[in-house]
Amino acid sequence: MQWSAMRWRVVVVFISLVTLIPLSVIFASIGSPDAAIWSHLIDYQLPGILLNTLWLVLGVGSGVFLIGVPLAWLVSVYDFPGRRFFTWALMLPLAMPAYVMAFSQLGLLEFTGPIQTWLRDTYGTSSWVPSARSTGGVIVILTLAFYPYVYLLARNAFSTMGRRALEVGQSLGLSRSQGFWRVALPMARPWIIGGMTLALMETLADFGAVAIFNYDTFTNAIYKAWFSFFSLDTAKQLASLLVTMVFVLVWFEQSARGRRAYTQAGRAAPLPRLRLGGWRAVGATLLAALVFALAFALPVVQLVFWAVSVWVEELNADLAAYVGRSLLLSLMAAALVAAVALLLSYAQRRDKRMTTHAFAKIATLGYAVPGTVLAVGVFVPIAWLDNALIDVFKDWLPEGTTAILKGTLLIMLLAFVARFLAVGHSAIDAAMHRITASQEEAARILGYSGWRLAARLHLPLLTGGILTAMLMVFVDVMKEMPITLMTRPFGWDTLSVRIFNLTAEGQWDRAALPAIAIVLAGLIPVILLSRQKDSA
Amino acid sequence: MKPMLLAAMIAAISGSAFAEEVVIYSSRGEQLIKPILDVYKKETGVDVKLVSDKEGPLMERLRAEGSNTPADILMTVDAGNLWQASNMGLLKAVKSPTLNANIPVHLRDPKNEWFGLSVRARTLFYNTQKVKPGQLSSYEDLADPKWKGKLCLRTSKKVYNQSLVAMFLAEYGPVKTERIVKGWMDNLATDVFPDDTKMLEAIAAGQCEVGIANTYYYGRLMKKTPNLPVGLFWANQNGKGSHVNVSGAGVTRYAKNEKGAVKLLEWLSSAKAQNLYADVDMEYPVNTKVKPAPEVAAWGPFKSSLINVSNAGTRQADAVKLMDRVGYK
Question: What is the Cα–Cα distance from A499 to A518, expressed in whole angstroms?
Answer without folding.
Answer: 10
